Amino acid sequence: MSTLHRPGVAAGRDAQALHRAAAPDYFGWLEHTRTAGGCARPIRLTGTMTNVDQDTGQVLAEQHTDELPDRVLYKACGNRRAAQCPDCSWVYAGDAFQVVRCGLTGGKAVPASVARHPVVFATFTAPSFGPVHHRHVPRHTCADRRRCDCRPAPCHARRDAATCPHGRPGACFARHDSTDGRLGRPLCLDCYDHDHQVVWNAFAGDLWRRTKQAVERHLAALCRRRGIPTVQVVTDAGKIRRVPPVRVSHGKVAEMQRRGAVHFHVLLRLDGVDPNDRHALVPPPTGITVDDLDTAVHVAARQITFTTPPHPDRPQGWSVAWGEQVDVRRIGTGDGDVTDGKVAGYLAKYATKATEVTGHCSTRLTPDTIDAYADPEGDHLARLIDACWRLGRPTRHRTSDTATPAGERQAKLDTGSHAYPGLRRWAHMLGYGGHFLTKARRYSVTFGLLRDTRASYRRADDGSITVGALAFVGSGWLTDGDALLANTAAAQHRERRRIGREEVAHETWSEVAA
Over the Cα atoms of the chain, what is R_g? Predict the structure, then answer.
């Protein structure tokens, strides 16, 4: 039972809420906290806010946070992770949906013509680092995958599977339920290559970068073979360059699998190049189709593989490549299985997640907290975190060309010119240090633009701006009762907005039907 749900704590929280609600300034406090209402741990700021005329710079009004309820200004934390703050992640997911959707259909400064550009939705998976328990449904007969009750196949049904060198069976005949805690766990912890997996996570971003470059190289070569000429453009520096007539813009979401390895869901859109405005979004040449983009993705996924730099624990490095399963689907804007709306919602949902599916959820680990999570003899997650911490340690090596005056070779500290030291920094993410939602610059609008637009909509346009000189004083609500009242009010506000949108949509449909 959690602390907040214990009877004594719940009674204290209710008493705090009643005390706040009975205060004369309750409704003023509720309005004051409305912008941060629903946030799990709002930021508390103190300082001065000055209202200044935009044209003349004249100070119109000045207010100190001591004059506000609780003597602080509340600001939502803005955390994207649903496990950390459901309300802020709900806002982030909405922005992520708009970022992805605008890149497919246009809108919000993206031309509507992008809806006619060829687009594919590709899924790149990690290779195998050892057999794990998994759930596979060979044939779905359910109407809704979210409530799927189809019978899965046996996990690892092998009649002739022998035991591993550690004496554990190499087969599993269980038909795992979707909530089975064994899913994603290795059949044998000692056989599983935990080191390789965390290194693969650390280099996955570089693997994707090389893959996209290979896709663009394949398409450029295809244009040359088909006689499609290059385009002459002027760079920002004023120089004239000849570039391929096609380029690929992407929106990418990283999803953590149950076994703790990331895989990528990527939207790849084929664009052309305008010789008069290299920043413009124009359709690709008629000689390049969605079939060519599909082929280019498969060719690049098979082609790209590299070896990581040497490590003291593995001088030959580790191989980094995609897994065997590379799924590529065409995106349609109609009523098909893979539409722009479904893909945008799918990617927005995973943009608010991290390692929760693996069962691990912690903040950045330090030498003081690592022992609580890492164990070389522990379970699967403990061994992955231990591998991150061990491989990410600073290492010393002997130089072959530098000597001291006494003729002795000097040891230098390898602070890590590559990704290995980053393993410690991202041990809480099982080695993956990339962002969970990224996009090409030309793909769509930015999160910053959406936030600025939302702020401008809320701000009264009276010709003045507010300049704040604020300092951080803490995070979180002052009491559990305050959190209950603010979050309840925010939930009611969201529900009213949802019902309002449904009513507007219903009235619009009734008018069209009539």
Answer: 28
